[in-house]
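Troubleshooting: if your tokenizer reports a length mismatch, compare your output against this known-good record of 149 residues.
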Amino acid sequence: MLKGIDPILNAEVLGALRAMGHGDDLIICDTNFPADSVARETAYGKLLRIGASVPEVVRAVLSVYPLDSFVDDAAARMEVVGKPDEILPIHTEVQAEVDAAEGKSWPLIGVERYAFYERAKKSYCVIQTHERRFYGCFAFRKGVIPPDV
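Known-good structure output:
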């Protein structure tokens, strides 16, 4: 255990998050996402897992992970097939976690399912959760931490 770090963040996940650089993408996905095959195509090359819900994992990750303020798509959700504007409860819950972590309203853009798969394959790594709700798949682009003043 470490002080100030959410205990669901295991050593392998913390190592991957630390190794990522500005502009790298992180995927946090539900249990139905083809996570293992997609993760093999990422920079990290293997799947990471955290046994918790997507909102819990997003909260933990965003407690140590800065979002990229230089782009419009730093936080994204997989769209519902055939209903791209539909916002599911899981989307609302993750939106609340993103806003809380950033201390302001932060846009969570929609990405079409197959476009999301392609973004995920180009990401740095994939964290699969125990989330069973559909469309619990999100992408987060890493930002920077400014120097101390």
